[in-house]
Amino acid sequence: MTSTVPQDNAISAQEQEQLDELYAAFAAAHMTPLWTQIGGLMPTSPRPDSVPFLWRWSTLLPLAERAGELVPVGRGGERRAIALANPGLPGTAYATPTLWAAIQYLGPREQAPAHRHTQTAFRFVVEGEGVWTNVEGDPVAMRRGDLLLTPGMHFHEHHNTTDRPMAWIDGLDIPLVRTIDAGFFEFGPEVLSTTETPPVSRNERLWAHPGLTPVGAPAPRSSPLMAYRWEHTDAALTAQLELEDEGFPGVVEPGHAVVRFTNPATAGDCLSTMRCEMHRLRAGTPTALTRTAGSSVWQVFSGSGVVSVGDERYEVGTGDLFCVPSWAGLALDPGPDGLDAFVFSDAPVLEALGLARTAREDRP
Amino acid sequence: MTSTVPQDNAISAQEQEQLDELYAAFAAAHMTPLWTQIGGLMPTSPRPDSVPFLWRWSTLLPLAERAGELVPVGRGGERRAIALANPGLPGTAYATPTLWAAIQYLGPREQAPAHRHTQTAFRFVVEGEGVWTNVEGDPVAMRRGDLLLTPGMHFHEHHNTTDRPMAWIDGLDIPLVRTIDAGFFEFGPEVLSTTETPPVSRNERLWAHPGLTPVGAPAPRSSPLMAYRWEHTDAALTAQLELEDEGFPGVVEPGHAVVRFTNPATAGDCLSTMRCEMHRLRAGTPTALTRTAGSSVWQVFSGSGVVSVGDERYEVGTGDLFCVPSWAGLALDPGPDGLDAFVFSDAPVLEALGLARTAREDRP
Amino acid sequence: MTSTVPQDNAISAQEQEQLDELYAAFAAAHMTPLWTQIGGLMPTSPRPDSVPFLWRWSTLLPLAERAGELVPVGRGGERRAIALANPGLPGTAYATPTLWAAIQYLGPREQAPAHRHTQTAFRFVVEGEGVWTNVEGDPVAMRRGDLLLTPGMHFHEHHNTTDRPMAWIDGLDIPLVRTIDAGFFEFGPEVLSTTETPPVSRNERLWAHPGLTPVGAPAPRSSPLMAYRWEHTDAALTAQLELEDEGFPGVVEPGHAVVRFTNPATAGDCLSTMRCEMHRLRAGTPTALTRTAGSSVWQVFSGSGVVSVGDERYEVGTGDLFCVPSWAGLALDPGPDGLDAFVFSDAPVLEALGLARTAREDRP
Amino acid sequence: MTSTVPQDNAISAQEQEQLDELYAAFAAAHMTPLWTQIGGLMPTSPRPDSVPFLWRWSTLLPLAERAGELVPVGRGGERRAIALANPGLPGTAYATPTLWAAIQYLGPREQAPAHRHTQTAFRFVVEGEGVWTNVEGDPVAMRRGDLLLTPGMHFHEHHNTTDRPMAWIDGLDIPLVRTIDAGFFEFGPEVLSTTETPPVSRNERLWAHPGLTPVGAPAPRSSPLMAYRWEHTDAALTAQLELEDEGFPGVVEPGHAVVRFTNPATAGDCLSTMRCEMHRLRAGTPTALTRTAGSSVWQVFSGSGVVSVGDERYEVGTGDLFCVPSWAGLALDPGPDGLDAFVFSDAPVLEALGLARTAREDRP
């Protein structure tokens, strides 16, 4: 759709002068005509400013380590987190228009102080262990492959009780909340609520039993389960591929297993503004090409492969992160050892607002 | 509320004759006046016909075994199930006005043929193992402490592949469905769909992972998870009591842990018409006395205790079953080894219709 | 499905004796075998005890008037209501297993005192006016064609401020609530809360505006709107038939307009346990034959027609009431002036429990 | 919260150099540290870029009329609509970060061609009449005080069949949909689907009856009712204030009546992304000061008053529009004839995402 003024014919100099006067009057009155803008405002399909981009783990991790040497963590800066900044969104620290993704780094024996905010957060661990995140005073161990939640307005703090540093990925809805101006933030106490290091958090002990609801436990609006452990995720993905081998349903397409992380108290998405999933691709079974309204960020968890995002093509390995702008074609082609990948997206937002849309092309 | 005609004063013989004529005319026209019935129709609080009753496992099991010797199982009778018949509901085979409970018995190498029906069913195993129930062709092992579902209109059949018999408890909503005349029934094939004996069913492989939803699996309206294994139930109850010891929330009242069996695709009750829960009582912590609109059936799973239901008082042990009519006071006092008890009720029905009500009295 | 013991072969006298002993032991233990009952308990399709039946207005009204002469209305009997008693449910005053329907009669200047109960109620006016029902102190005028609600646990009382008597139809879920033992009842004050006679109730002034929700009004779980006026119902039905004439959607089948009375705060059924609808049939357009799981009661509001219910066939006119048992075939054939009919059913109950089912046969 | 690097102490030149190198490496890798940005990203309460602003009808209307003389309406530019451009969001045509508001002008006998888009739209008429908007081929008259809907992906076109021009307000979620890149747009046919001018649209004939649902009509996800007529809105507001005078509930605060425009098929907001309400303030009763997360745009419909938005203070009259950024304090003080005002906001978005928040201060 073109965005020109809808007048094919030449206009006279006088007419042009009158138009110029009109547009100047619009500007003075803080008014903008639709007819000069509609193509940009209302394209026939999404035209994101954000672009496909790949951040390599081999770049991210050394920089995070260097920040660990030079930058303290504490009140004010709050977290030693370095965000992925989409080149198409200059001046921001946003991976996509709705999603914030960062690598966070906590050195040996370091602590990050408590705060809470309306922004929803999670952490995903691609390697390492040794940090506990205390969510409302409940210490949650962080280990390889785990997804850990921090729903909105839950106080949280981190502590590393080991002699090794640890890095992980943070995902938040900071850009979305900033756009709609819905962010509130509060500092917590200076001193951590606890530095205990239990292997299993209290919320897991209450809620991480399949199909079992604790009748006496408070049922918050957000997920009561804060930790999704790799052992369960891995077992669920393994089972889907085995069922496929046996001829039964379970995979989303040939060789492609997916689990969605969900709130056991509602069966909906684990977070109100972000969908989190783990995908497992069997070697030799590339995915169909899909387009989805809304954006996402992926991190390779293990294995390797070739990823197409729009016109870009990336060879990816463990830890690498890439973003998928709205309606960009996405296809994953796993390497010889297959590919495990974590993804988070703004799908719950688009679904809640009636704006979700997906298209799928089978590939030759 | 009294159910007499609202006239305190004596009436004349002529008036009585006119009234008699009127009432005869009502009867002839198939009409019934409210004012002579309202006390029975609309009592100030529920006045169930059903009564508290205890069925001892030591009575039930031998009779089921004897039926195993004398009565074949097969097409027509369909199941060797013997129902608990509430003495207050003569002429029926109902445990309560909404709930059907039976002991089912399958001898060595026996099979029960496939059928399906709109009535919702579950099985609970208080002892033994060796039977698989195939639900829509998916073989589900039945073992001690397990809850196995058969949602409405799912074909199901049973097979015992061992040399030992097995008995278990069936729960259905037969009385409710009969009252509202909503029952449909179909026979399945004469030959079983499978006699495989996998330790884990396919539905569990897809759905029995805490907080993980298989994106590629069909999501039915009824629960996609057909088996709730004792190892999970036991672990969840144990955790609640341990959290209580540590000073954290989780139990419903002191010493009283409860898990509700829920549909992982909706987080609601595992069955549309019946609530299923497992309770664990610590020795020395009797429950409060509660009254609940709607009825329930309990089975002691392990341990012992003293149970009060209305004016009745039962000493109960493993396998014993008792029913709780609507609004009857219920209190459980666990024995020296504590008490584990399974319960199913019509609570989802009353909640769906806006009729749920509970009262609770702390005991001295 | 037959309900015999599943044994084709002759059994020996000794075997019979053993069986007799077993069955006697069952009876002594309050146990009932499934295999001798299953055909009745679980039929292949509903086999209601209730039967189709027609109650003529020309019979009902004179008997109600006679009751007005002989029986006072007041505390204890509470209401001068005479229920339709289904011949298939002897000993009850039930129109169907879930629905209670009655003609209620209030003489000139009479009052009926306040009470409330968990049973849900409505009133429908086939003729006359002059009575106000005060629902929680809000006087609601009752006029021809109006549907007036009394959701559960709302205090209500009636007063006739005219010199003429008035009769109307009451519908309640008394049988359902009695079956599940969920009934609670309370008397209100002896003196009426008000005897005002406004033409429009307060709840209508807040809620009877299409698509407009009063932001400052309390939003109860049950319908906040207590009166559905004939002028709106009539206009909505008229519009549907006019749209059909113009070639646009709106009717449910040719010549058949239907409006459902709904809760404006939820858009669901106006009552939690009963669905209420008004049907208008154009002359010359008989309905398809439909079967529905669950039961209903119809009242002709105006016009005439021939109604088939199961094997019965009724010629009906204004005020006549008939009941439709579960799964009985129903067809309506309007007379030369068409047919307007009010119906209430237990459809919300079956839908809430996942038991709704409908079949439809086009007629030759 | 400050956004400085969390280091109070002076650092050495060498340290600074190392930091500079690190930050340069971040930039090269398209990474941005959180600790330098967190104050802006995550403020303690919303810090909108958008500012309070007032657009006067006396400015808007003449400019729209002038555009009517100079700019044709037709394919490409699509609509002669001039948007309100918030001075705090330069380079955009957005009234707030989520809401688009414009004055649209259609001259005598003019037409605007059909298109559809995922963006949700409505029109509100502050004065005039004569235009019909055809929504999916259903002509909807536009008259003073009416709210007319165009839910997402509904084809719509306008035609003015009179000799007078007409101007009205359009509201859309263009900024929100642009931010999350969820916009799809399609042209419709060049020729209008109809130029009929019925006084009542077909959707109203089916759906604009209080509490009455047409059983035979299709029930879309979006509102089936496209027109909310002033006569109903006015009557509902009048009733709330009368009930207040009589001592009954209904107003949201003294002298302040509010109706929300809702979808009669769901009882939720009339549009998935925008809440629409009409407020009526009685003279002499200023509102409390409220702060709300999320933004809104108001238009005075009749009367006058003084409005405070944040630190701004506006004297307003009929047709004037003003926007309220997130968390800006809002208070309305009606003039001697009271004040009627229409408002639309992004409240459904914040509620769907769990981000809604409101604070209220009673004024001295």
What does this molecule look like?
The structure is a homotetramer of 364-residue chains. By secondary structure, chain A is an alpha+beta fold. Chain A folds into 3 domains: 44 residues, no CATH class; 165 residues, Jelly Rolls (Sandwich); 132 residues, Jelly Rolls (Sandwich). Chain A is 19% helix and 34% strand. Chain A has 7 helices and 22 strands. In chain A, the strands form 4 sheets. In chain A, strands 2, 15, 16, 18, 19, 20 and 21 form a 7-stranded antiparallel sheet that branches. The longest helix of chain A has 17 residues. Chain A is globular, with a radius of gyration of 23 Å. The two termini of chain A are 30 Å apart.
List keywords for this structure.
homotetramer, 3 domains, 364 residues, globular, 34% strand, six-stranded antiparallel beta sheet, alpha+beta, 7 helices, disordered N terminus, Jelly Rolls
Short description:
The structure is a homotetramer of 364-residue chains. The first copy, chain A, is α+β, with helices and mostly antiparallel strands and 364 residues long. Helices cover 19% and strands 34% of the residues of chain A.
Helices and strands of chain A, in order, run as: HEHEHEEEEEEEEEHEHEEHEEEEEEEHE
Structural class of chain A: alpha+beta
Summed up, the helix count of chain A is 7
Q: What's the CATH first level of the largest domain in chain A?
A: Mainly Beta
**Which regions of chain A have little confidence, pLDDT < 50, spanning 5+ residues?**
1-8
Rg of chain A computed from alpha carbons, rounded to a whole number of angstroms: 23 Å
Question: What percent of residues of chain A are in strands?
Answer: 25-35%
What is the domain tally of chain A? 3
Query: Pair with the most extensive interface?
Result: A-D, 99 and 99 residues
Oligomeric status: homotetramer
Give the overall pLDDT of chain A as a whole number. Answer: 94
Percent of residues in helices of chain A comes to: 10-25%
CATH-defined architecture of the largest domain in chain A: Sandwich
What name is given to the CATH topology of the largest domain in chain A? Jelly Rolls
Give the distance, in angstroms, between the N- and C-terminal Cα atoms of chain A. Answer: 30 Å
Largest sheet of chain A: 7 strands, antiparallel
- Considering the protein shown, what is the CATH homologous superfamily of the largest domain in chain A? Jelly Rolls
User: What is the number of strand segments of chain A?
Assistant: 22
Morphology call of chain A: globular
